[in-house]
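Our preliminary data section would be incomplete without showing what the modeling component actually yields. Below, a chain of 480 amino acids is followed by its predicted structure, encoded as tokens that our downstream tools consume directly.
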Amino acid sequence: MPLGNILVADDDAAIRTVLNQALSRAGYSVRLTSNAATLWRWISAGEGDLVITDVVMPDENAFDLLPRIKRIRPDLPVVVMSAQNTFMTAIRASERGAYEYLPKPFDLKELTTIVGRALAEPKARRLEPEGGDPGENIPLVGRSPAMQDIYRVLARLMQTDLTVMIAGESGTGKELVARALHDYGKRRTGPFVAINMAAIPRDLIEAELFGHEKGAFTGAQARSSGRFEQAESGTLFLDEIGDMPMEAQTRLLRVLQQGEYTTVGGRTSIKTDVRIIAATNKDLRILINQGLFREDLFFRLNVVPIRLPPLRERSEDVPDLVRHFFAIVEKEGLPTKRVEVAAMERMKRYRWPGNVRELENLVRRLAALYPQETITDNIIEAEVDQPAASVSGGDGEEDESLSVSVERHLATYFQGFGETLPPPGLYHRILREVENPLISVALAATRGNQIKAAELLGVNRNTLRKKIRDLDIQIIRGGR
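Predicted structure:
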């Protein structure tokens, strides 16, 4: 007796054959069709325990068919396949009630696993998602396997309120992912409020997050609402969470545990209803080991971790991104450009230290500064090869001074922001980044002996103690 009856619809005969062989070997009974009309007739007659269908059919789009299937057979799982492989394809599949979305080409073992899981789950009526078609305003671009994995995770998260932690290098699009989770999720009608922890002075972070009462501190001449209050019923995006001071981490943890907070200077608890999405370009586990980030807060925030790959790990997405950004600048009034094949190949080989943000800035520069309609390999070579060589570790860099190294790092950092400037507070952020490893190394070299470390650094012992406390540096003491 077969494990289940599978209805397969795809106008590609080769795919139908492959699916038939794989599913039959796994013990399923399979019926094949090349059009949506036959599939609909089978489903209407009550046939099939599971449907596998391509999105684009010769007579009807599967996204138009899915709502009708859900109305008459809400418990019938539908697996959607597509060669379009965009973010919106995954979102539409989820919104229309698909059990799973699979980008083509797909792994047959993964497909049979999905089929087995779907048939094993208890049948439960699934309500049709609210809201209309979000349209083709695609917020994320890329068809690489790495991006496909992200699309599928995001699609599963859209109808949940789970806390999400987005990790990735600067310029990979962390806020873009956070906005997509909000704009296409169940809180889309609420506000999206973003706060960058690295851009706010340490002594003002709590007031920014939770608000303050009149007279709570010098300069507080009136009550001010915080970001939690502003994001009520919506999404609060905590960017660069790794830069949050320890005292603010403690208060944030309390809010996540209890669902309420008090304003700075306030006495009454305020209940909060927000979805938290956090992001970081740092390894929080390293910060935890250094005593700079609370482990219990990390586990509260890291419910669903999403890692955004750097552009160098998905170089096959570069052509799509280039076309996307050229289309944007064309709408802004800049001339149309095309990139020759050799130039595009060079762009795919480039390491992109500034990631997608650096690529966007390059496209804008190409559109604005070069009169040629075709961007040649020579132009791209002039634009990207010199920055790439500066970080290649070539001859002479072993003797590079700290000053030159810092200057080179800052040049790359500023380049990532293009024509805009980095967030305020750069001086103190850089000092903190330098002070922390400097003091940590000195303490490690002196096996935690603060008197010797102060002498080594040439600072007063009390000054060193204050720095250790302010920077939350963990001291590991050792023997002689």
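The CA atoms of residues 212 and 264 lie 4 Å apart. DSSP finds 20 helices and 14 strands in the chain. Preliminary results of this kind motivate Aim 1 of the renewal.
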